[in-house]
Amino acid sequence: MNKVMIEHVSRIEGHAKITITLDDAGQVSDAQFHVTQIRGFEKFVEGRPYYEMPSITARICGICPVSHLLASSKACDAIMAVQVPEAARKLRELLHMAQFVQSHALSFFYLSAPDLLLGMDSDPAKRNVAGLLEKHPDLLREGIALRKFGQQVIERLAKERIHPSWTVPGGVNAEFDPDLREKTLAELPAAMAIVKRTIALWKKTLDSFPDEIESFSNFPTMYCGLVGPDGSLRLYDGNLRFIGADGSIVADQVKPADYATYIGEASLSDSYLKAPYFKPVGYDEGIYRVGPLARLNIADRCGTPAADEELAEYRQRLGRIVQSGFHYHYARLIEVVYALERMQELLDDPALLGTKVRAHADVNNLEGVGIIEAPRGTLIHHYKVNDDGAMTWANLIVATGHNNLAMGRGVLQVAKRFVDGNKIQEGALNRVSALIRAYDPCLSCSTHAVGVVPMVLQLRGSNGELLDELG
Amino acid sequence: MTEKVKVRIDGEVIAATPGQTILEVARANDKYIPALCYMEGLSAVGACRLCMVEVAGVARLLPACTTPVQEGLAVNTSSPQLQSYRKIALELLFAERNHVCAVCVSSGHCELQSLAQEHGITYIRYPYNFPKLAVDTTHPRFVLDQNRCILCSRCVRTCDEIEGAHVWDVSGRGIQSRLVSELKRPWGEATTCTSCGKCVQACPTGAMAEKGWGVEEMTKRPAVVSRLTSMREGQ
What we know:
The complex is a heterodimer of chains A (471) and B (235). In chain A, 42% of the residues lie in helices and 18% in strands.
């Protein structure tokens, strides 16, 4: 028995490795996805005052600190039992939309575009942002501009792009400057134009990946995400909906506080990432996916005109339920359209400039759950406190966690399709990594893994001896 | 009128009142000497060792906050050696407990943090102690986080000398020293505490804070506490 290790998986956020096991004939018999870092947040926050949780948990991630800030603030709102003032609720959503724009732009342009536009088999030395700059300079510049726009809106609202302290339990700690609203409104059309051009390009490119579409986690699973009361796409608020592989609604309008009735978590022996599953079905058959692909499968519609138009075309091309993980990329771009339209709606709303932006209260509930749709999927923060407000227990289910089982199975599917143990091709192994990149996993808190983490691929014999190495 | 004494601080001749400390004279004359445990309006204890200065003719360094001036005293407030010692003192404070500025309510308004920045501290050369310390959340309005306490005792002196309640003490010795309220009762159960909050205002770090504030949100006003003393003295 031989093993191929992809250690580390590059161009993702965080640290992971993949083990591909080969049988005696050199064919793939098993493949596993391991997350190799342990963080310990749920444990070390015990004893801390609950209102420190947004800033502590924001440090989980440098790409999407806003997601954690918001989910955590919502859990704290529940502990305080307050209604967040209207202006603050809208400002928080605006912040969230800006984050969607920047995070999705990062995933598509910086992390995945090298595979998608330069080719899965292209020279690994150039299959990165620098290579992209050489071949597709205009596209890359637009990608950078789009991400910059998202980051700038975050900065305008929250004063800092990364780990801002603006989002607090009960609301936000400062109102929005009307001048900055005008500035943002003026820049919106340019951002929208970039996304539209990118989607048009992507639609043309899509047909050149038949094998990838066929084998990138292309299997039936359930899907989970937030929806509004009318079943439309929701990213900041809403209730949970679970649908089956055929699109039938399995559970709908599940209140955030009731998530544990439907979501269980299994610990895996070979990964530090737990594996959530749909409880009524059980582990590990209750496999479900979250994130852009899942959200567009779940939602009846987006609820904004341009995004709905794109969604209609997406469904016309790919079907009502899209199951290939490769289409996370397409779904992600449609969500950017939605996020920009939602930003426009929020910026046009006079209530956004309200001056009452923070509700103050003591501990009024000993337990609170906050759920949002982070760029990568459903993010759950669940806290318990004592009467004095000290944390006694925390459970965080991050977006990437929900996809753990699906990524594991996807790795096996794509490895079986592309990897031949008798003749290891770098491009084949890159497809295994590209599958993981399609999910845009956020395995940690770092912004450093943009094409600089070396990917070492090792082929080892049954006694552990090194047979071959690429990297 | 009291007769003045002449002292020399960093070469400049200054007229001072006998009984004044080097630190008081320096501050009154815009000469900067860093300090953490010193606070105007409270007795000086010389605990933090940041105000150490060189005095001509004295072989060892002396704390400016507890050393009275005398005729002819010549003080040097800054030298490479002093800077290096101050840096060591600050780094040891960071290494002793769990100071995590990134998630601290006082970040951006913290005396320890700003002194570290002022002294160019970008990392700590000593291994961190990582003690497991409790957060006392029992008081309805305030919180005490031992992780961020530097044992400057400003709260102890504020409560004793200004409020007159003497809720706070330092128990234990050396590395085991801990700030305690009312002989180790939880703060929320301390019967002598008047909940005036002056200790919180006097605290130079995020160790004591008002409840409910998030990261970077807790600003302190020690000058308000100092003013109480000067107003009483003026009566």
